[in-house]
Amino acid sequence: MTNLLWLCLVLWISTATLFTTASAMPPPNPIKCNDINSNCQLSNSYGVWGDRQTCHAPNIVYPTTEEQLRQELANANKNNLKVKIVTKFSHTIPKLACPSNSKNSLFISTEKYDSTININMERLTVTTDGGVGLRKLIDTIEKAGLSLVASTYWEGVTVAGVISTGAHGSSWWGKGGAIHDHVIGLNLIVPANENEGYAKIIKLTPQDPFFNAAKVSLGLLGIISKVTFQLEPAFKRSIRLNFTNDSGIEDEFMEHARKNEFGDIQWYPSRQIAVYRYDNRVPLNTSGDGLNDFLGFQSNPIFLSKSVRAAEKGLENTRNVGGKCTMASIFVASKKLIANGLKNNKLSFTGYPVVGHQGKMQSSGSCLYSSSIDITSTCAWDPRINGLFFYESTAIFPSSKFGNFIRDVKKLRDLVNPENMCGVDIYNGFLFRFIKASDAYLGQGEDSVVIDFNYYRASDALTPRLNQDIWEEIEQMAFLKYGAKPHWAKNRNVAFLDVQKKYPKFNKFVGAKVQLDPKNMFSSEWSDEILFGKEEGLKSDGCALEGMCICSEDRHCSPSKRYFCKPGLVYQEAHVCRFSSISTS
């Protein structure tokens, strides 16, 4: 492909992203069964797990009430089955929801357990079924004249799923940006002895000893059947994005978080651009009916998603760094032009500030929905279309360490040439969000900064990636040098190495599990691998290419394709797979 043709293609792709469709083909159901509710396979929303292995169970059940949930768990307990709870979204990237590879396992789905949402206007609370989707919950609360203060940016999650994995938005104000810290009560269905009917419902409040274990429990303690959130009177938000130079980002992030209730920062390191989001609540009578329809979560024409993937794959195969930078520049410029999906009148962006109701500004995911039969557009990562395919690394830093991490990333950028970081800027660069200290045993123990970054994943597990050593060094820098905690619902396996040492109350969580699930019904080798941070015992050839291990020999990379195990450039204790003409085993 000539440079001119390539530039024309990128310009066309960039222009097309400005005209996404309002409805789309909904994402596929994560469960596929060969027979009716039997011989079932679970996938995540990207269609491929970290190890590229399948995840299956002989049977699945679909309870519709809390009592039916209890009965299904009781039957499983009575018959000595392993159990995993699955939802209609399946947006957890690690294999927490995968049961043990045996015939004695069962999926319990909450897809049809989503009917009850009870609002208490006097106490400003809402109690909801665990299977209720976040968007349904938000809309119901807003209609009652109330607001849920914290939520995830992506709304394709269930209530129980979002709290059990520690998912979050962004805020250091009030109770903070983590949704589980706004929970004031929950029901947990746990195994029981024969005299108690093999399963029982326990009601937990902040005063109960198991409450802080259950809030972020990874589906390992029992079934979260009911959740009660604290609400506030309805309010609006006013948002303005400032695209500027990144020169002071490592010193300014704290002040930004303190001054802006829902603020975040997006950093495009190769472009040396920082995007400060000034995001604060305003009175309900403030003029404006805006909408946050984040560009990355809008539906895209299938041909466009396939073309973007094909273009990036071609650049990878030809090691074309310049092409990636052209792509990154145009994508960042497009996001600036349309305010990354903010809309003043629910239709288009006309200028700052964008003011809208909390329920329309706090979360998005328009590619989830279909108002008509549409097979031409969908979420860009829909596994049925061979569209975008990427890794998502998310690290949670104590705020006191975050500035030095950014300084190290800048050192690395300057050392390798900023162009070699263009790959991450094709997606969303680095997103900084803020969450407060939490009492949850598997939550963050101090005010923290969360950093997310996405980057290309090869279609084949043994295919190395352009500049993959840079992202591996940043990954190891975050989790090893600075001791960042991994987001439980994201990340490659290496992010969880020795994770239990990063949580001072980890043993309290394990103690709660011993009491609530003494037979380990909710555990599997997959979830144990994540919870206890174990690296595979015998490292296999190529295991470092997909983050299943940290390389210690060249064979863990791809020596036949000239990728060898090398030390990091800034964080020299890192071991990364780097393209080179010389091996240094």
From TrEMBL:
Leader sequence segment: 1-24
Q: What is this protein called?
A: L-gulonolactone oxidase
One GO BP on record is: L-ascorbic acid biosynthetic process
Q: Which reaction does it catalyse?
A: L-gulono-1,4-lactone + O2 = L-ascorbate + H2O2 + H(+)
Q: Which UniProt keywords apply?
A: Ascorbate biosynthesis, Oxidoreductase, Signal
Pathway given in the UniProt record: Cofactor biosynthesis; L-ascorbate biosynthesis
- The keyword Hydrolase is annotated on this UniProt entry: no
Q: Under which main EC class is this enzyme filed?
A: oxidoreductase
Gene Ontology CC entries for this record? membrane
Q: What species is this protein from?
A: Solanum bulbocastanum
**Domain FAD-binding PCMH-type: from-to ranges:** 53-234
Under Gene3D superfamilies, the record lists:
3.30.465.10, 3.30.70.2520
An MF annotation (GO) of this entry? L-gulonolactone oxidase activity
Which SUPFAM superfamilies does the protein's record reference? FAD-binding/transporter-associated domain-like (SSF56176)
One Pfam assignment: FAD_binding_4
What family is it from?
Answer: Belongs to the oxygen-dependent FAD-linked oxidoreductase family.
